[in-house]
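Same chain as my last thread, 62 residues:
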Amino acid sequence: MLYTDGITEAQAPDGELYGEERLRAGSTLDAPALLASTPTVTAEFCAGEWQDDATLMVLAVS
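reply #2:
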């Protein structure tokens, strides 16, 4: 999983950062599910006010 700081530094309305720990918590999902859910979960964390650009790349090895 490769990502930019726009994901880990996304802020909740109270100023709390999304952080690497939350991002890693989702890493138990398979690659397609992780790629599909991360933008939604992060936007919900930010209460829809995502301020930064974000990039996420998930590589699956089979």
